[in-house]
Amino acid sequence: MSDKYTTFGADAFEGGFLNIGDHRDGKDRQDGQDRPGDVEGLKAENSFLRRRLERYRMAERKWERERKRLQEVSVLFETIFDAIPDIIGVLDPYRRVIRYNRAGYRFMNKRPDEVIGKRCFQLFGLDAPCDVCAAKLSIEQGRAVQLEKYIDAKGIWMDVRVYPVFDARGNLVQVVEHLRDITEGRRAEAALKASEEKYRLLVEHANEGIFIHQAEKVRFANQKARKMAAALDVRSSRSEQLLRCVHPEDIKGRRQSLVRRLEGENRHPEPVTLRLMDKDGSVIWVEVNTVNIQWQGKPGTLNFVRDVTRQKELESRFRDAQRMESIGTLAGGIAHDFNNLLMGIQGNICLMQLDMDKDHPHRDKLRTIEECIANGANLTKQLLGFARGGKYSVSPQNINEVVRRCARLFERTYKDLKIHVNFKKAIWAVEINRGQIEQVMLNLFLNAWQAMESSGDLYLKTDNVRLDYEKVHPYGLKPGKYVEITVADNGCGMDEGTKQRIFEPFFTTQPPGRGTGLGLSSVFGIIKNHRGLIAAESELGKGSTFRIYLPASAEKPRGDHREALTVKSGKETILLVDDEDYVLEVGRLMLKGLGYRIYTANCGLAALDVYKKHHVEIDLVILDLIMPDFDGAAVLERLREIDQNVKVLLASGYDAASKAEVLLESGCLGFIQKPFNLNRLSAVVREALDDDL
User: Fold this and answer.
1) Is residue 215 domain-shared with residue 342, that is, in the same domain?
2) Does residue 115 share a domain with residue 256?
3) Do 70 and 210 fall within a single domain?
4) End of a domain among 186, 214, 245?
5) Average pLDDT, whole number, for the chain?
6) Are 428 and 466 in contact (CB under 8 A)?
7) Which residue has the higher pLDDT, 668 or 324?
8) Are 423 and 537 part of one and the same domain?
9) In a domain? residue 486
10) Contact 639, 669 (CB under 8 A)
11) Which end of the chain is more exposed for a tag (fewer CB within 10 A), N or C?
């Protein structure tokens, strides 16, 4: 109620109504007399009017207080409305702007007079409404609408919520817009999704199996884990189903321990290694590491399963290599001592034959003894082939020619065997000792013939291959170019236990009298000493396949030159050095029988003393490689300090290849393997003496 209206009311009550009374009673007043009844009536009327006036004044004061309260509420509303950081707008049913709060004007960078009355889409420089408009949907459907919208003009994402406003009759008269900037939230959500996708890809494509176990169930398993065990492919898989994948031998006595591990009861469990079995029966070795975690608010275990099958194979190969190395050392030592014994026998027989008539009755017996010595030497040769360092004097060869020659020789002897060949035409050369590789091939052929029970098919193949680091590292070899030789048969095959022992010396599956057990062990040693490797594949009833890998050579292959040995004598002076007295004596007599003057020494120190005194007249030193005080290499070094041009011929009952090769390359004139006969000794000595350094 305005002040003007209030004043008007007061005047009416105080003046106008009283005047009305005066006019009504004017006649009596003109007579100058007041009637008693009229006076009382006027008093009552004036009292009524005063009460009415007081009530109106009270109402006026109340209305003023209400006006002030509404004014305060309006100011408070405006303050709150403009203080809200989100954008609040009011639109009419035609989507024209009635007003925005301060945040809205600031967002659009416009004054109120530039906004009010405009259509919402015009505020962002558009000529037509958006395809999806929250205000339009709210007006059309008469309900609250919420959506997320990208504002191109601002380059931001907005959460838009529109609420309809109805009058008392239910007619929609306005809509209220609420807009909130959610750009940072969207970016964070996108970053979170990207992070989740990254880690999902990492986990799903990890090289380790990963699975989560909780409340006796597998809750999650990545792709690698599902491949390792079929039970991990089902989310509802229980512990018992998972344990069924464990190899029976590995589950014995460990079931409860494994269950406690899966349930997280072991707080600091050590990694456990076991075998898993798939539906098809394939077996893999795995290492399982377990970590206690919280999964969806409940305790569980995170399990990492690593396939260690390859590692187990490498460990097994390493143990085998160590065992074979120790056996090889023992075999080499036995062969060395045995060859020295044979040397003593052979030398004495040669000396006896020198003084014996051709028709002497004991000559045939001596030849028989020589044959026994040759057989014994052959056995020690196989032992030396197995032992460390069983090769020397190598040359580049065409392996096709070596294998073909051995195959033809074997096929002529064992006519029931049918040999099939598939040789690589442009085969790479290999640095080999031809005689030893021939021994390898003949031993493999004989092994196949025995496995096929005297008849069957033998398949020979050669090829050029490249071996990577993983393939050759367990054998201590270098990756690179190799020549592959494959020998396969269709015989009875081998079980796993036999296959693990075939390269051990003296191990044989043949009955007594049919084999020494040195054939495959010598094959192993010879190939190893050629810096190659040999692998066997076999199953019972499915035959066996041996694959040999020899390092390729860049040299051109040389032909096979084998010269016949004849007795050659001489008159030069020779120093013979050997730590075995009986070998020293028989060697002295053999050389003396060939016409040479001889000095002897039974150790390295004695050899140096003799050479210091007589080096001017000594033409050749025959030096034993293996001696207790000074070995051959140390003695050779000291001899060269005395005379740089000393001629040295190496000898040993143990053909230590690495030492022999190094010394031969440093200028030694040759190597003679014990036991040797007079023909061999004469030829090697003569060749060394005739060599011009």
Assistant:
1) no
2) no
3) no
4) 186
5) 78
6) no
7) 668
8) yes
9) yes
10) no
11) C
More confident residue, 628 or 172: 172
Task: Let me know whether 480 and 534 are in one domain.
Answer: yes
**What crossing angle do the helices spanning 363-386 and 309-354 adopt, rounded to 10°?**
160
pLDDT at 599: 92
The set of long-range contacts for 461-470, using a CB threshold of 8 Å and a minimum separation of 24, is 461/421, 461/422, 461/423, 461/485, 461/486, 461/488, 462/399, 462/400, 462/403, 462/422, 462/423, 462/424, 462/427, 462/486, 463/424, 463/427, 464/424, 464/426, 464/427, 464/428, 464/552, 465/549, 467/549
Ranking 61-70, 638-647, 664-673 by mean pLDDT, the lowest is 664-673
Do 402 and 518 belong together in one domain? yes
Question: Angle at Cα 679 formed by Cα 675 and Cα 685, nearest 5°?
Answer: 85
* CATH number where 656 lies: 3.40.50.2300
What is the CATH number for 122? 3.30.450.20
The pLDDT value recorded for residue 23 is 44
Nearest CA to 675 among 378, 383, 385, 389?
A: 378
373-383: pLDDT as tens digits:
776 666 666 55
428: CATH: 3.30.565.10
Instruction: Out of 4-13, 331-340, 483-492, pick the least confident.
Output: 4-13
Identify the CA nearest to 123 among candidates 111, 140, 132: 111
* Residue span of the structural domain in which 222 resides: 205-307
Tokens 């069983």 correspond to 390
Question: CA–CA separation, 48 vs 106, rounded Å?
Answer: 60
Around Cβ 318, how many Cβ atoms within 10 Å? 13
Q: 22 burial class (0-12, 13-18, 19+ CB within 10 angstroms)? A: exposed
pLDDT for res 42:
81
How open is the CA angle 59-63-64, to the nearest 5 degrees? 120
561 in any annotated domain: no
Indicate whether 327 and 349 sit together in one domain.
yes
Q: Which residue has the tokens 């120093």?
A: 575
Give SS3 for 191: helix
Parallel, antiparallel, or unpaired for β 283-295 and 298-307? Answer: antiparallel
88 in the same domain as 72: no
CB 574 within 8 A of CB 647: no
pLDDT at residue 550, as a whole number: 94
- Strand 417-422 and strand 395-397: the pairing is unpaired
> Is residue 565, in this structure, part of any structural domain at all?
no
Q: Decide which of 520, 553, 586 is a domain's last residue.
A: 553
Which residues on adjacent β-strands are paired with residue 175?
A: 91, 164
- Residue 319 lies inside a defined structural domain of this protein: yes
Do residues 415 and 469 lie in contact, with contact meaning Cβ atoms separated by under 8 Å?
Answer: no
The answer on pLDDT for 40 being more than 90 is no
Rounded CA separation 292/264 (Å)? 6
Distance, in Å, from the CA atom of 654 to the CA atom of 631, rounded to the nearest integer, reads: 13
**Total count of domains within the chain:** 6
> Is the pLDDT reported for residue 423 higher than 90?
yes
Digit-coded pLDDT (tens) for 223-265: 888 777 765 554 545 666 677 778 888 877 777 778 778 877 7
- Residue 682 — pLDDT band, cuts 50, 70, 90? confident
Say what the pLDDT of residue 380 is: 66
